[in-house]
Amino acid sequence: MTTYHVAVIGGGIVGMATAMALLDPPGSRVVVLEAEDRLAAHQTGNNSGVIHSGLYYAPGSLKASNCREGREALLRFCAMHGVPHERCGKLVVATGQRGLPRLDDLLKRGIANGLKGIARISAEQIREYEPYASGTAALVVPETGIVDFAHVTRAFAAQVECSGGEVRLSSRVVGCRRDGAELVLETRTGVVRCKNLVNCAGLYSDRVARMCGVDPGIAIVPFRGEYYTLTAQRRHLVRNLIYPVSDPRFPFLGVHFTRMTGGEIEAGPNAVLAMKREGYRKSDISVSDSLELLSFGGFWRMAARHWRMGLGEAYRSLSRRAFVHALQRLVPELRESDVRPGGAGVRAQALDPAGFLLDDFRIVQAHRMVHVLNAPSPAATASISIGTSIARIAREQFAS
């Protein structure tokens, strides 16, 4: 039986980028184990496809530098490998006086983060960029783009295989034990032996860590983001991307409009608690997932702190009128008849025991293991940069 140098658990964009970095230069025996029958089945394949500019991150932070470097690396990769993409820009709109100080703060951050062409525009100038949008003022952010991240992930996988790596689908890891200097991973398709392990399992990263005998110190809370799509006859209401000024208290950007690479216009998402790790529908409920969440003290502390926000998100989930009302703050001409229910994604949000939502990467190391427990936005945009960083951490850890 082959013993791999590294097994990467998770075939999303971060796991595949990490495997690609571990194989640069080629020579190591690397295998990627994906639970589903396709790559990018969960977070990667169900997001809005935005290549983020880095506008929201504190200047000098790792998130800011990773986003800047990762964005350019991603754009170069897409151009080199024929992945359709576009640097289309976006508007961040303040819809009232209360949003203006935050808009000014975002402008300062964008300039400090080196964004080219970023500028504040007046209410009248908004119509020059988005004829049907409305607001008190806005930021033009030219370095935002769009891409299909599932397509990117498949392109990463092709590079992994070209460099001698292996990608196994339908290979959910259900057990892990040590056998001398090796790790033995039990999967649904057989046993995999490896010397080292990198956990990029996303929604299941905390469970994989525990399976490997590591206390993650956090719990993964699934938040479902639900989308509507504009009807074909009303797509002209949005040219590119229109965002509201976000609330800095939460790691969510608020409902917004996104043009997809195929021309469709998505509206959303909200952020409602899912009662199943893969709870893409309102009716998806897992008793075991729910009991696990409700037994975690940090959940109740979070609920006590943010119950008003949670009720608002739940109401928008149940009421199309309320959802559209939130969107009308950005595009007043939008009507309920202009939208149709779209898809949904589930975000793996790390929550600490104190009830705080983690807004930064959480990586836990153990003997011959690296567990990536939280990979928030801009993880997809910065996947090449982040994968390189994880691979560097892994090499240093494995060599010790």
Plain-language structure description:
This protein is an alpha+beta fold. It is 32% helix and 27% strand. It is built from ten helices and 20 strands. The protein has helices at residues 13-22, 62-81, 100-112, 123-129, 149-162, 205-211, 287-294, 297-318, 320-328, 383-399, and strands spanning 3-9, 30-33, 50-51, 85-86, 90-94, 119-122, 137-141, 145-147, 166-168, 173-179, 182-187, 190-199, 219-230, 241-244, 256-259, 265-268, 272-273, 339-351, 362-366, 369-374. α1 links the parallel β1 (3-9) and β2. The protein is globular. The mean pLDDT is 95.
Largest sheet: 9 strands, mixed
- Could you give the count of β-strands? 20
Class by alpha and beta content: alpha+beta
N- to C-terminal distance: 26 Å
Topology:
Layout: E1 3-9, H1 13-22, E2 30-33, E3 50-51, H2 62-81, E4 85-86, E5 90-94, H3 100-112, E6 119-122, H4 123-129, E7 137-141, E8 145-147, H5 149-162, E9 166-168, E10 173-179, E11 182-187, E12 190-199, H6 205-211, E13 219-230, E14 241-244, E15 256-259, E16 265-268, E17 272-273, H7 287-294, H8 297-318, H9 320-328, E18 339-351, E19 362-366, E20 369-374, H10 383-399
Parallel strand pairs: 1-2, 1-12, 2-9, 5-14, 12-20
Antiparallel strand pairs: 3-8, 4-8, 5-7, 6-7, 10-11, 11-12, 13-16, 13-17, 13-18, 14-15, 15-16, 19-20
Quick structural summary:
The chain is of the alpha+beta class. The chain has ten helices and 20 strands.
Notable traits:
single chain, 10 helices, eight-stranded mixed β-sheet, 32% helix, FAD/NAD(P)-binding domain, D-Amino Acid Oxidase, Chain A, domain 2, nine-stranded mixed β-sheet, 400 residues, 3 domains, alpha+beta
